[in-house]
């Protein structure tokens, strides 16, 4: 299968320098570097990823538009943050269900590029209360189906200290009922991100995650 290099060490060099010089003045002087090393390679990756994701599910989107697409903005939302640094020091893209729009809390696949901390995977992060309730209810109602997911992959997420009210504290899946997120993530080294098979690696992770995605979308009454 054909492979292609998308990202180069220049991406990590830019992000490392941005960590040290996180100001509008520095970014303005280095905007061309950002576009050449970070934005444009990510948009090419997203464009080529679309057909590959559709083989996993025709309902997952990979929008390669530079504004309003799958790639997250480099600008931070600092309105309610004590940290007033204007820029994110990583690059990210979220490939969501077609019915979710730009909702970062919807089921989807995710790619995160950061010096020494890159990763990819998928699932559901910080869903709202009603969505979380639907997922927990499906785990209780269809334990065999959830067992099939858990046998294949290790589901991660922030967890409550106790089983939420309304659920059996000694349920066989009590630990999973405590979860507030349901996702799978795999770490990528900087070298792997810059390698010729980064697309294959990410698509493989998405494929591994697909049983979880199928369960989550079914719980939320979305097609898969």
Coarse shape: globular
Supply the helix-strand structural class. Answer: alpha+beta
Strand composition percent: 5-15%
Q: Which sequence of SSEs, written as H and E, runs from N to C?
A: HHHEEEHHHEHH
Mean pLDDT: 94
What is the gyration radius calculated from CA atoms? 19 Å
Please count the beta strands (DSSP E, at least 2 residues each).
4
CATH topology: BirA Bifunctional Protein, domain 2
Assigned CATH architecture: 2-Layer Sandwich
Strand order of the largest sheet: 1-2-3-4
Uncertain residue segments? none
The total domain count is: 1
CATH-level-4 superfamily name: Protein of unknown function DUF1054
Q: According to CATH, what is the class?
A: Alpha Beta
User: What share of residues is helical?
Assistant: 40-55%
Q: Describe the sheet with the most strands.
A: 4 strands, antiparallel
* Termini gap: 26 Å
Count of helical segments? 8
What does this structure look like?
The structure is a single chain. The protein has 224 residues and is α+β, with helices and mostly antiparallel strands. The protein has a single domain, classed as BirA Bifunctional Protein, domain 2, CATH 3.30.930.20. The chain is 43% helix and 12% strand. The chain has 8 helices and 4 strands; from the N terminus they run H-H-H-E-E-E-H-H-H-E-H-H. The protein has helices at residues 9-20, 24-29, 31-56, 129-141, 143-152, 174-177, 190-193, 198-219; strands at 91-96, 108-113, 118-124, 182-188. A 4-stranded antiparallel beta sheet has the order 1-2-3-4. Helix 1 crosses helix 3 (31-56), helix 3 crosses helix 8 and helix 5 packs antiparallel against helix 8. The mean pLDDT is 94.
């Amino acid at each position: 299968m054909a492979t292609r290099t998308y990202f180069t060490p220049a991406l990590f060099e830019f992000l490392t320098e941005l960590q040290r010089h996180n100001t509008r003045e520095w970014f303005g002087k280095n905007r061309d570097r950002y576009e050449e090393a970070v934005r444009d390679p990510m948009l090419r990756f997203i464009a080529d990823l679309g057909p590959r994701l559709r083989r996993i599910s025709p309902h997952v989107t990979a929008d390669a538009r530079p504004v309003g697409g799958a790639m997250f903005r480099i600008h931070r939302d600092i309105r309610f943050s004590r940290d007033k640094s204007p820029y994110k020091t990583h690059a990210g893209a979220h490939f969501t269900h077609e019915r979710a729009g730009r909702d970062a809390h919807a089921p989807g696949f995710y790619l995160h590029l950061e010096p020494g901390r890159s990763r990819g995977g998928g699932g559901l992060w910080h869903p709202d209360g009603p969505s979380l309730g639907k997922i927990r209810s499906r785990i209780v109602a269809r334990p065999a189906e959830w067992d099939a997911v858990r046998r294949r992959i290790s589901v991660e997420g922030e967890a409550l200290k106790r089983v939420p009210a309304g659920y059996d504290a000694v349920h066989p899946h009590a630990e999973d009922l405590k979860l507030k997120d349901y996702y799978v993530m795999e770490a990528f080294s900087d070298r792997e991100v810059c390698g010729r098979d980064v697309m294959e690696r990410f698509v493989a992770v998405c494929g591994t995650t697909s049983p979880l995605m199928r369960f989550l979308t079914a719980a939320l009454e979305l097609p898969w």
